[in-house]
Automatic annotation (TrEMBL):
GO terms for biological process: defense response; negative regulation of translation. Belongs to the ribosome-inactivating protein family. The lineage of its organism: Eukaryota, Viridiplantae, Streptophyta, Embryophyta, Tracheophyta. This is rRNA N-glycosidase. It catalyses: Endohydrolysis of the N-glycosidic bond at one specific adenosine on the 28S rRNA. PANTHER family: PTHR33453, RRNA N-GLYCOSYLASE. Residues 260-419 form the DUF6598 domain. Gene3D superfamilies: Ricin (A subunit), domain 1 (3.40.420.10). One of its GO terms (molecular function) is rRNA N-glycosylase activity. It comes from the Eukaryota. Pfam families: DUF6598, RIP.
Length: 456
C-alpha cells in the first residue's frame, strides 16, 4: 500500500496559531475508520506501529526538508518515506530531557520548557541548521533535545489537549504541574473514553488528574488515542528493549521483550548480517479474534525451517525493570579474571512459561565481568540479556536465579568458584522501587532490585 504524505505549512513568526491548530486537528481526525469508534470527541487513526503508518503528516517549519527519526539506539529503523537521520534518542520525554525519574522529568517540564514565541522561533532556527554529530549513531546534544521538546509541547500536545493549546495561545510562559499530569495521562484518558460503560473508571486518573468521568475528560482531550492493550512477549530477543524484537534461531534462547500496543516479531536466521528478516509475526491489537492472558505459540517460516515463537498478551499489566548486582572479592596481586554464567528467569503464575533474563547455562557461555584489579571488593552489574518485563497487575513477579561466578588467574587456571544457588524471589507490582535482601554464598553477595514504572 502506498504511503500517503500530507504537508501542513506553518509560519512560526507570522502564522495564525489557532487557525493552524484547528486545521491540523481536522486533518488528523480524517481517516477511513472514523465511524468505527466513538468517544464523544475525535479519535485518531488506528496505530500501526511498528508497521509503516497509512499516512504521514509533515508539519513544515523549515525550508531545508531534512528529516530526523527517533528510537532506541542501535535498533531504530528509518521508516519515513524520505531519507532520514537517526537522532540518537527516542521520542519520550525521559529520553529527551534526561531525567532521573518521572518526578525529575515532571519538574523539568514545568521549569525548563518556555512556551513563548521567541523561544519557539529560536528552536526552529537552530533545528533548521542542525548537523548530525559524526559517527554511525551520533547522538543529538541536550540543547537539541530541549528544542524538540519545545516543538512537541507546542504542536503535538497542543493538538491533542485543550489546556496545552490554551497555554500556548494565551501566552502562558510555562506548563503547570496539573498540565504535566494531564500530559502523561493522555493515553489513560483516551482509554477511559473508549472503554465500556460498565468498566470502572481508572483510579489513577482520579488521583493524579482529578478527572472522574467522561465529561471532565472531554474538556481536556481534543484528540483521542486509539488505545490498545499491553503486550508481554516470550522469545529469543537480542535487544534489551524495543517494539521491534530481533530473534535468534537458538531454541535455548528465550529472553523476554515488552511492548505497548501492536508488536512485530522478526526472525533473522542470518545472525543479523542481512538488512531484512526472513520471517515475521505481526500482532494487531485491533484484531477482534485476539486471545489475552494466556500463553500462545505461533510458527514462523524461515529459509532455515520453522521457528516456534511463544508469547502472551496481557490485558492489564505494569512494566518492571530487574537489576542484579554482585559484590565480589577482588585481589590486588593475582590479576584474577571473573566471569559469570547460569540462568535467571522471570515468570508469573498465570502464564505457563517463564522469560529468560540471563541465559548462559554452561561454563563455556560465561560472560566476563568488568572488574578492576584492586584489593578489597567490587560491586558489578550482572549483564542481563534483557531487564524489562511486563507483569500482570494481579499477580506477583517471580525471579528464579541460579548463578555461578568463576575466577581465573593469569595462567589460565580456574580458581575458587563462588556459587549463588537457586533463589526464588517474589515481588508484587507497585509504584516504588522495592529493595531486596542480599543473598550470600561464600564471600560473594547477590542483590536483586525491581523497579516498577508507569507509562509517561
Amino acid at each position: 500500500m502506498a504511503v500517503r504524505v500530507e504537508n501542513v505549512e506553518f509560519n512560526v513568526r507570522t502564522g495564525n496559531y489557532p487557525e493552524f491548530m484547528n486545521n491540523l486537528r481536522d486533518r488528523l481526525a480524517e481517516h477511513p475508520h472514523l465511524d468505527e469508534v466513538y468517544a464523544g470527541c475525535p479519535v485518531l487513526a488506528v496505530q500501526r506501529c511498528p508497521k509503516q503508518p497509512a499516512r504521514w503528516m509533515y508539519i513544515n517549519l523549515n525550508l531545508k526538508g531534512q528529516w530526523f527519526h527517533m528510537g532506541f539506539s542501535g535498533m531504530s529503523k528509518p521508516i519515513l518515506p524520505e531519507p532520514s537521520t537517526f537522532l540518537g534518542c527516542d521520542g519520550s520525554y525521559p529520553s529527551l530531557l534526561g531525567g532521573r525519574d518521572e518526578d525529575d522529568v515532571k519538574n523539568m517540564l514545568v521549569n525548563d520548557i518556555d512556551l513563548r514565541q521567541v523561544v519557539l522561533l529560536d528552536a526552529v532556527h537552530k533545528l533548521s541548521g542542525y548537523e548530525q554529530p559524526p559517527g554511525p549513531y551520533g547522538a543529538a546534544d541536550d540543547d537539541t533535545k530541549l528544542d524538540l521538546v519545545h516543538l512537541t509541547v507546542v504542536f503535538c500536545e497542543g493538538a491533542r489537549m485543550a489546556l496545552h493549546y490554551d497555554a500556548v495561545n494565551d501566552g502562558q510562559i510555562s506548563l503547570n504541574e496539573r498540565q504535566v499530569d494531564y500530559l502523561r495521562n493522555w493515553w489513560l484518558m483516551s482509554r477511559a473514553l473508549l472503554q465500556d460503560e460498565k468498566t470502572p473508571w481508572p483510579r489513577r486518573l482520579s488521583s493524579e488528574t482529578g478527572i472522574n468521568d467522561d465529561e471532565q475528560a472531554r474538556r481536556v482531550v481534543l484528540l483521542v488515542l486509539n488505545t490498545s492493550t499491553t503486550v508481554h512477549v516470550h522469545g529469543a530477543a537480542k535487544r534489551r528493549r524495543s517494539d521491534c524484537l530481533y530473534f535468534r534461531t537458538d531454541p535455548e534462547a528465550a529472553a523476554a521483550g515488552a511492548a505497548d500496543g501492536s508488536f512485530l516479531i522478526e526472525v533473522d536466521t542470518n545472525n543479523g548480517d542481512g538488512d531484512t528478516a526472513d520471517g515475521t509475526l505481526f500482532w494487531d491489537c485491533y484484531d477482534g479474534q485476539n486471545e489475552y492472558n494466556k500463553t500462545l505459540t505461533h510458527t514462523i517460516g524461515t529459509t532455515r525451517g520453522p521457528v516456534d515463537v511463544t508469547y502472551a498478551v496481557l490485558s492489564d499489566a505494569v512494566e518492571a525493570t530487574v537489576q542484579l548486582k554482585l559484590l565480589l572479592p577482588v585481589a590486588g596481586d593475582d590479576n584474577t579474571a571473573l566471569a559469570v554464567y547460569g540462568d535467571i528467569t522471570a515468570r508469573s503464575h498465570c502464564l505457563a512459561v517463564g522469560s529468560a533474563l540471563f541465559l548462559r547455562g554452561s561454563r563455556e557461555d560465561a560472560v566476563e565481568l568488568a572488574v578492576a584489579a584492586a584489593g578489597g571488593s567490587a560491586v558489578v552489574d550482572v549483564p542481563l540479556q534483557r531487564c524489562v518485563v511486563a507483569v500482570p497487575l494481579d499477580w506477583p513477579l517471580e525471579i528464579d536465579v541460579q548463578l555461578y561466578v568463576v575466577g581465573t588467574n593469569s595462567n589460565g587456571e580456574e580458581g575458587i568458584r563462588y556459587t549463588c544457588f537457586q533463589r526464588l524471589l517474589l515481588s508484587s507490582p507497585g509504584g516504588e522501587q522495592q529493595p531486596q535482601p542480599v543473598f550470600h554464598s561464600g564471600n560473594t553477595n547477590l542483590e536483586v532490585n525491581i523497579t516498577w514504572s508507569r507509562d509517561f
